[in-house]
Specification:
- By secondary structure, the protein is α/β, with parallel strands linked by helices.
- Helices cover 47% and strands 16% of the residues.
- The strands form 2 sheets. Strands 1-2-3-5-7-10 form a 6-stranded mixed β-sheet, sandwiched between helices. A 4-stranded mixed β-sheet has the order 4-6-8-9.
- The longest helix is centred in the N-terminal third of the chain and has 19 residues.
- Bound molecules: coenzyme A.
Length: 261
């Protein structure tokens, strides 16, 4: 992964931290930034040594303040559809990633930024962060899956209210409504809390974690029978060495040593 201009990527202990890095533009998602995100997600899919991912924004002001509005000028009826489909495809790579992806929301998560956070499996946010889908202020709607995922996370009433009013929602309120998993009081607490949760997940059996992600995503996939998906996933887990190790460790009253196979 070379030539990343708008993302900073670092890896430690199997956790890849992806930082959207355009702080002077509040980390707005330009098309190039999105393409880089696609490259990084493909790397995650191709690299089992990446066991988990954190997505965050550079600086203390913004996670991501939306798609790059400066790039909207040439948008028309035809290329806007491709624009939305491209973003949706990249965010689906995050949502369907077989390894856990956690958003560490350090500031404004607006428009495409809120959509990016929602595509991640979990969200940890500093209390001063603000969430919102303010696209109607610009005469458009969310295009990177926001209408769907916000409704899934907070329910129809709040999703409609927040998208139609374009309100900026404080992280504490977003937490009350299920958009955010955990809030932390200060920026200094954000990464420790995010890593605490991610490391707890990484201490479990990796194949089981992958199956949980797939089965929960199946709830929202209209063509899929989630109960069948769950039964298949359950039997896949039962084929693994980690299943044998997990049950053996329980009976031997010791911590399990999972190997991801
Ligand atoms: N796209 C492109 N540039 C953006 C941006 C976006 N989504 N959000 C912020 N920026 C840029 C600003 O244009 C400004 O650039 P400049 O210094 O070259 O003029 C810089 O980031 C700082 O933003 P600014 O608006 O001056 O900061 P602020 O503290 O006054 O306001 C926000 C912060 C988040 C309230 C405001 O930037 C905003 O409303 N952004 C757009 C949010 C949005 O509508 N997102 C959905 C897009 S679909």
């Amino acid at each position: 992964m070379t030539n990343l201009d708008n993302l900073a990527v670092s890896q430690q202990d199997g956790i890849l931290t992806v930082t959207v890095n355009r702080p002077d533009k509040l980390n707005a998602l330009s098309i190039k930034t999105l393409e880089e995100l696609k490259t990084v997600m493909q790397h995650v899919y191709d690299t089992p040594a990446v066991r988990g991912v954190v997505v965050t924004g550079a600086g203390e002001k913004a996670f991501v303040a939306g798609a790059d509005i400066a790039e909207f000028t040439g948008m028309n009826e035809v290329n806007s559809r491709k624009f939305a489909e491209n973003g949706q495809e990249i965010f689906a790579m995050i949502e369907n990633c077989p390894r856990p992806v956690v958003a560490a929301v350090n500031g404004f998560a607006l428009g495409g930024g809120c959509e990016l956070a929602m595509a991640c499996h979990l969200r940890v946010a500093v209390e001063t962060a603000k969430f919102g889908q303010p696209e109607v202020n610009l005469g458009i709607i969310p295009g990177y899956g926001g209408t769907q995922r916000l409704t899934q996370l907070v329910g129809k009433a709040k999703a409609l209210e927040w998208m139609m009013t374009a309100d900026m929602v404080p992280a504490t309120e977003a937490h009350r409504h299920g958009l955010v998993n955990h809030t932390v009081p200060t920026q200094a607490d954000l990464m420790p809390k995010t890593l605490e949760i991610l490391n707890k997940i990484l201490s479990k059996a990796p194949v089981a974690i992958e199956m949980v992600i797939g089965c929960v995503n199946a709830v929202y996939n209209k063509g899929e029978n989630g109960y069948q998906t769950e039964a298949n996933a359950f039997s896949i887990c039962c084929k693994t060495e980690d299943f044998k190790e997990g049950t053996k460790a329980f009976l031997e009253k010791r911590p399990a040593r999972f190997q991801g196979k």
